[in-house]
Amino acid sequence: MDLKAVRAGLPVLERLAYMNAGTNGPLPRRTAEAISRALERELLDGRSSKSYFESMLAGRDELRAALAGFLGTSPDRIALASSTRP
Question: Residue 70 sits in which domain range?
Fold first, then answer.
């Protein structure tokens, strides 16, 4: 991992230092751009069509596969949750 490249993707680090463990840490530029694209798509296309839900399910599968690859396991052993609160 290229830490200089990671830091370059966090524009706020040009003027501030974060000592937080990540809960409310800086937002990477590429994350903000991805959020912006998703919000624009939802604004224009809505969030209740068949294609919307199919893309959400496909995104979930892609995320599980990526996490599995990173962790050295299979996607069927990865569970995604929206919250860890009881």
Answer: 48-86
